[in-house]
Amino acid sequence: MNRPRRQLLGAAALSCAPRLPQAASIAYPDVMPRALDFPRDFGAHLPYRIEWWYLTGVLDPLSGGPQLGLQLTFFRIRPPVDPDNPSRFAAHQLVLAHAAIADPRRGALLHEERFARTGFGVASLSENDTQVEVDRWSLARDPASGTYRAIAQASQFRIEVVATPTQALLLQGERGYSRKGPDDGRATPASLYYSEPQLALQARVRIESEGGDARLRSGRGWLDHEWSSTYLPPQSNGWDWVGFNLDDASALTAFQMRPAAAKEPGADRVAAWFAYASLRSGSGNLRTFAPAQVRFEPKQRWTSPRTRATYPVAQRIVVAGRTFETRPLMPDQELEPAGGFAYWEGASELLEGGRVVGRGYLELTGYAGPVPGVLGR
Questions:
Q1: Which domain holds residue 230?
Q2: Torsion sign across C-alpha atoms 321, 366, 225, 184
Q3: What's the CA gap between 170 and 285, in Å, rounded?
Q4: Which of 11, 62, 261, 366 lies 20 to 30 angstroms, CA to CA, from 18?
């Protein structure tokens, strides 16, 4: 809620997009249930308002050091620009990217972002497959192998990732149609949404202040891809989302849309306005769960020294009788995109019965203030 990250959507991703301009007279297409079509749906969906490719992962320790969290997200936004405007300077499509490294030795995220309109050789998108680039940051899928390659050269760090699928695509919701609210007779906010969990990662991470060559790290990753045209509905003020790779090769997705009338942070939890979860076994058996079967409960809170927002950075998640708990690699994983809204995107461990059973990401939005003009994961 991903997406997207992870705003629309989600990882997912559901997943966390920056502030969007208000629509003028642009007719954005509605999201309707349909069969997803691959490889076409790996690519961009330019008529829709917003889209994201949300790559996260947790890298194994090196020489007794800590695990590292890794996030690289590309957003595509279609502003309310007249599609008949012939100017090369008209911003018909915008591409944004966030990159972040969670290193517990530092105690706070290293993160940067990029932003540009398509054209002029700065930003580009492909409608045929995953291939998105902005200011020399890129994410591309090899159509032959399905492997993703991503590069982000920031001022503070450089990330190079190869993410290889080990499982089939995971279609979220109803075969890829992901509701973000109850089916109560009103227009239902929704996205088209698939995930690629259990990605085998090979990554080189160089921190510029540390110097030296980056050593190759392995780990497990998750990619969410979502697209939609729907704003966050007034009934909700934000969402909590998780995507976790379990050690037994299963994959857990869960999100809740919090009600607009939710109590202040730190108060007792209130019932979600909507919730969803999916759990796929390593053998491919997929189960999805109705809102009444999904429950998020705050377990540990952290207050940002910058925004003063209080986030439930560790959560207890109950899915159809199974109880999981998340534990962050470090509390301070707040992102503050320029011109956007602050949210928490945290590399975490997943526990069940007090034992670590997986790794992944927890995403928290709406705690630092209203989420502007976006649909939750």
A1: 40-364
A2: positive
A3: 11
A4: 261
